[in-house]
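Our preliminary data section would be incomplete without showing what the modeling component actually yields. Below, a chain of 191 amino acids is followed by its predicted structure, encoded as tokens that our downstream tools consume directly.
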Amino acid sequence: MSRKQMVRPGGRSARVQAAVHSAVRELMAEVGRGALTVPLIAQRAGVTPSTVYRRWGDLAELLSDVAVERLRPDGEPEDHGDLRSDLTAWAEQFLDEMASGSGRAYIRDALLGDPDGSNAGQCSDYAAEQIDIIFARAAGRGENTPAIEAAMDRVVAPMMYRILFRPVGLEAAYARQLVTDLLGALGEDGR
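Predicted structure:
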């Protein structure tokens, strides 16, 4: 069981997590990622370094935890009235956010300090939950939808691969083409 799973979700633990996350974000803006140390973060958060080490283990795991929180979507995807429009708008926004300099940095941090894969799984769950909302809306309008895993495999996975390993040419047209290819497997309009 990882450290993060053993921590109580509320009370002092939640306050410590909030203070430490805030300290990381502030210090990254002030001194940059390369200058971050656990003692510096602990001092800013008003906790002891041993508290940080006990909770996160090391700086990489702390930065991973902060990155996962920063990658959490702010709200539900916008409703544009049909499956193709909803999924295309979401894919374009996802690509834009994840391919940005800060998005790539958060992805790297999320993966680097993730010894058990739980943070990568959480980030994947965020995307799947957003797609599930889009598909539920479409189904409510009587539209056929692909399986969520098909969308993950044919839209999200290629974007993430390109973001991490081939970040050239990542424009909205790429996201639109992935959605078109996915929905083409269902029929012309995704119906």
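DSSP finds ten helices and no strands in the chain. Residues 52 and 180 are 46 Å apart (CA to CA). Preliminary results of this kind motivate Aim 1 of the renewal.
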